[in-house]
Amino acid sequence: MLKRKITITTCFLMGLIITINSQNRTIITDKTDQEAHESAILELSSDDKGFLFPRMNSDEKYAIDNPAESLIIFNNETKCLETHVDGNWNEIWCSELVEQDIKDYVYMGCQHGYVSKVNKHTMQLDEEADLTYIRALEYYDGYVYAVYQPALYKLDPFTMNSLNYLDLRQFVTEGYEHSVYSSVKAYGGYLYVSTGYHQSDTTWLTKIDPEDFSVVEEWFYEDLLFFAHQMVPYNDESFIVFTCSGIATIDLLTMDIQIRKPSVERSWHMGIYLIDDYLFATVRSTDTESPKILKIDLTDNYNIVQTLEYDPIFYPEESDQFRLMTGDGNGNIYLALSWTLSRVGESSVVKIDADSFTIIETGPVLGDTGENSGGVNAVFYSDGYIYAGGYQAELYKLDASDLSLVDVYEKVVGHTIWHIAGY
Questions:
Q1: Per-residue pLDDT tens for 302-320?
Q2: Residue 159: which region, alpha, beta or left (left: phi > 0; alpha: psi -120 to 50)?
Q3: pLDDT-above-90 percentage for the chain
Q4: What is the pTM of this model?
Q5: pLDDT of 396 over the 90 cut
Q6: H/E stretch holding 75
Q7: What separation in angstroms does the CA of 261 have from each of 186, 248, 278, 321, 380?
């Protein structure tokens, strides 16, 4: 009978016993007289200590050069244990799976294309929902909601599959489905969807239960078109909206609307943003005036306290526009710019200090179509970066500190990103 000789090599290091036998099984332990299990190439054994994975944030994770298949790290930004499989990082376990995973993505809605889920770090497409003519997006409570005229969709944020659907055609005159201004806002456990029809200057506002997509209540505002693509909650009591008649508030209990600041003239109000008791609103250009940004004191009878025009870029005779706005929570506002007709603009995103109401940074020209039109329509701030959507469905990533271009995702199919959403 043959007997196999097993050679055991033992060394001591910092109070640990490292034993390697001739079968190339290794055990690292703080105990004596213990061998690795026969099925393991390496075993760690302790009664009062654990194994610590390498810890890093998402940017550091994506900076690993040529990560091996099954490489494992702990993401201390998302609180997830992750492994690298088939060229992608995948969560093994997360403390809050849905929210932490979504932090790695932004969602963009195109006028002619899809709702696309793009990785913020790699700027690569992950999943898409085949919905066109998207006017508004909202991320709320682990789901993505898209206003796809004339309907509202609830999308799974991982697969982008449609989970629910509400037809809004009852609020739109047949044949004018694409002549609608829409917005969606989650607030107080409900979704509020506005559907404005500019041929008749009317707006429907619908309150929807996000769980079963039932209509809780609906209101019709005659001769009052909601121009802005955003509704802003204020003081836990009302929404602020920009209408064809001026700045208005909607009482969240009665849903009565009150014009707070009448417009001097009919203009297109594209975006609004709230910081404390100041409302910042963009006003589109007219035949006689350049587009403006208004700073409005909500505590002082909604008075316009400052007006900002960006003369180096815009001229009254051109169809140039300030578009949607976003903020970083530190008193800075980021504004999307677009242009058409005979002259290309000098910038596509500007950074504004809300206190001094001055432009402190200007970004590069983005989204030039080659047809004397371009710029960006939508901007979204996340983790120190600005994500800006262009006319050819490009998604640009800018450093929020100086608005320098970091990366770009160029979509193959699509046109005009109307809205960007994320966690």
A1: 888 998 876 544 443 444 5
A2: alpha
A3: 19
A4: 0.74
A5: yes
A6: strand 72-75
A7: 25, 7, 14, 22, 28
44 touches 35 (CB < 8 A):
no
CB 54 within 8 A of CB 74: yes
Q: How far is residue 339's CA from residue 331's CA, in Å, rounded to a whole number?
A: 27
pLDDT in tens, 137-171: 899 888 999 987 678 899 998 889 999 989 877 65
| φ/ψ bin of 367: left (φ > 0), alpha (ψ from -120 to 50), beta (otherwise) | left
Question: Distance (Å, rounded) from C-alpha 85 to C-alpha 79?
Answer: 19
For residue 191, give the 3-state DSSP assignment: strand
**Lowest-confidence segment of 39-48, 58-67, 326-335 by average pLDDT:** 39-48
Beta strands in 276-392 (DSSP E): 278-283, 292-297, 303-308, 321-327, 332-339, 349-353, 358-362, 374-382, 385-390
Inform me whether the pLDDT recorded for 13 exceeds 50: no
The whole-number average pLDDT for the span 49-75 is 88
How is residue 233 written in tokens? Answer: 């909650």
Give the Cβ contact number of residue 366 at 10 Å: 24
Delimit the domains of the chain by residue range. 8-45, 55-95, 104-422
- What are the start-end ranges of the H helices in 40-185? 58-62, 97-102
Asked whether the CA dihedral 54, 56, 62, 63 is positive or negative, the reply is negative
The CATH architecture one would assign to domain 104-422 is 7 Propeller (2.130)
